[in-house]
Amino acid sequence: MATSLTKVGGVVVITQVIHQDQASIPLQTPPRATPPPATPTSTPAAPPAPSKLDELRVAFLQGGPQALGVSQIMVGLVCVAFALRAAFSPLLVLHAALGLAVAFVVSGSLTLAALRRTSVSSVWTAALSNGISALVGLVGVAYLGFLMASYRPAKLFCDDATWGDVTPTDTERRDCLWKISLLDVSEYGSLGVLLVLLVLQVCVSITVSVFSARAIRRRGRTATAARSR
Where are the residues of the annotated region Disordered (predicted)? Predict the structure, then answer.
């Protein structure tokens, strides 16, 4: 096979002579570029669905049970301390009824226990105990209102028919009431503080009960939706 070049009018003509026994000219095709191997893309795993217990805990935490439980315990201890004063003076025997505030300590402790180990039974227990505490608090508010309206400690000192072997006159009684009027002021101040604390306790107990009921209801809805699937 011979090749010749001829230039005609500015055009280069390539002449190739093929021998008779050659049927064709093997053509070389450029090798195809093989695409790089596709790297397998790992699809991110879907996050695990939250369990029913997690949803119960999240719904329960929305009410702030830790602060509410601690406040219940503090209010209960203050009320019990006032009730213990009845053991030292017969004039304060009416304060003994405030010993029922131990229910506030119990409900606060159960609320904190439900926070540490959240379960359906613990949340139910917290809801019921706080419902009872709310009722006790309402009774306490009414009782303190009655004491502040009708109870005057100074009269217990000055309104006796006799002072030992002496029968006081009306003037002496008025002077007695005026001199120990500070006792009434301190007593009414103490009862007023207790009244505010009991109102706070009622609000806290209702709040814990409502959020506990919501948490249990939300878990019930989640369980129903999971069964329907």
Answer: 25-49
